[in-house]
Specification:
The chain is built from 13 helices and eight strands. With about 325 residues, the protein is of the alpha/beta class. The chain folds into two domains: about 170 residues, Rossmann fold, CATH 3.40.50.1980; about 120 residues, Nitrogenase molybdenum iron protein domain (Rossmann fold), CATH 3.40.50.1980. The strands form two sheets. It has a four-stranded parallel beta sheet. Strands 6-5-7-8 form a four-stranded parallel beta sheet, with helices on both faces. Helix 10 links the parallel strand 5 and strand 6. The protein binds zinc ion.
Length: about 325
């Protein structure tokens, strides 16, 4: 309860202050409100894949959760469209990861002009790890000053002022996110409280089993130091005694010779054991570096795109566990 209570109470205050002005609104707005009230289940929108998976797991068969960022596209490359504002203008609940991942969201919510929209921040109460980028901001910009893609956002650019947002990749923090989503939905729609609780409990139990598997199977490779192009795994690494040395701001699919040098330098400096890329990336130069430096090369999935079935999380995470086991052997 603690984690969401402040967020919910702020939303409630906002809601009450808006009720007084509702009577002044147009007939069009009024008909939207009526439609929402006639439906027993709220219309729920999630921002992107992992939050969609967790929210759909809690909602179960009480309703369908919509997703703002297409599950087939990289969430960091998202650009809001007028259709997205429309989706939010019709919604009752918006569930976000928070910790600055959805930096576009406040402008989009303003655009949607939906005074009834209630928001759940799934990371409420989670203490963020500082983003790798936060420390090296100046340096990164200097090093890319002559980059041909200067001024363009790189594929994995992270400018998250609130710290690293990739908490869903830690099976323990994922449990906390599911519980926060459950509590938020119950507060908004108490009529479905029993279903939300039962569904969340089953999913949290699966996450606990996943955590046990990670603990057991990664214990023998504790201390393993890996390099990743995407600063997505510090929570996972910290949880299971591994070390991630992220090299952010390097696009895996169009890296420059200078980027390659940085990977080589970091691999030597940190005594890295493995080089982790993402599924779907095939780059001969990266393969060459891994063989030159005797680093194992594996793909690890940040689950920012994929399938929308809540069970997909476990499939992807077990794939990640196997990749880490092989990489760190
Ligand atoms: Zn990411």
């Amino acid at each position: 309860m603690y984690f969401y209570s402040s967020a919910i109470s702020k939303i409630k205050l906002l809601k009450y202050s808006l009720i007084a002005s509702l009577s002044c609104l147009s007939a069009i707005t009024f008909s939207t409100v009526t439609t929402a009230q006639n439906d027993s289940s709220p219309k729920i929108v999630s921002t992107f894949l992992p939050i969609h998976l967790f929210t759909q797991a809690v909602v179960g068969d009480t309703g369908e959760v919509e997703i703002l960022i297409s599950p087939g596209m990289g969430a960091h490359d998202y650009q809001a469209t007028p259709d997205d504002a429309k989706l939010l203008s019709d919604a009752d609940v918006l569930v976000e990861n928070g910790l600055g991942f959805e930096e576009f969201l406040s402008a989009l919510v303003d655009n949607a002009g939906n005074s009834n929209l209630q928001q759940i921040n799934a990371s409420e109460g989670i203490e963020a790890i500082e983003g790798e980028h936060d420390e090296h901001d100046e340096e990164e910009h200097d090093e890319h000053a002559h980059d041909e893609h200067e001024g363009e956002e790189h594929g994995h650019g992270h400018h998250h002022e609130e710290g690293n947002p990739h908490v869903w990749l830690d099976p323990v923090l994922a449990q906390q996110q599911v519980a926060t989503i459950r509590d938020g939905l119950i507060a908004i729609n108490p009529g479905n409280a029993d279903s939300y609780s039962t569904n969340a409990e089953a999913y949290i139990q699966q996450l606990q089993e996943l955590d046990s598997e990670f603990q057991q199977r990664l214990a023998p490779v504790a201390g393993c130091n890996f390099i990743t192009f995407h600063d997505a795994f510090p929570y996972l690494a910290q949880r299971y005694g591994l070390t991630q040395e992220a090299i952010v701001e390097i696009p895996e699919d169009r890296n420059s010779p200078k980027d390659i040098q940085r990977v080589q330098q970091a691999a030597r400096e940190y005594g890295a054991k493995a080089l982790l890329t993402e599924p779907g990336i095939e780059d001969k130069r990266i393969e060459q570096i891994s063989s030159d430096l005797n680093l194992s090369l594996e793909a690890i999935d940040p689950i920012e795109s994929g399938e929308t079935d809540p069970q997909y999380y476990f499939q992807a995470m077990r794939g990640n566990l196997e990749a880490l086991e092989r990489a760190c052997q």
